[in-house]
Amino acid sequence: MKHRDLQDLAGGLALSALGLFVAFYARQSYDFGTAARMGPGFFPTILGWMLAVLGLLVAVPAFFRSGSLPQVEWRTFAIVMGSVLAFAFSLKTLGLIPATALAVFLSSLADREITWRGRALVVAGVTAVTVLIFVTGLGMILPLWWWSI
Asked: Same domain for 81 and 60?
């Protein structure tokens, strides 16, 4: 029996579905505006359509090539989902820097090959980039530490 490349096929279709949802939701919920005077729905609508097209670019070729059935790594899935939940529940109580460091550290546990030094560098780097993007670049008002809450 010939198996399709189900991993890329499912991933591409999931990306397309997410992109279509974002595009339609943004178009219905926010003012689109024009290219010269963009509304709040312009950027998410365009990105949603781009994601839908990119998903199709992944899914269509995968339908025509063979592949093995995907192996689900439940341990990795649980660790990554747990790190997302840890960030969500700790952001308001710990602040941005510790919550980001905690989430990145927990998600790095999914990689069995990373060294502790590499893990520490990833935690420091992602945390620094997060602060630079959201606080410095975008000017978001987020408490950085638990004592600044």
From this structure: no
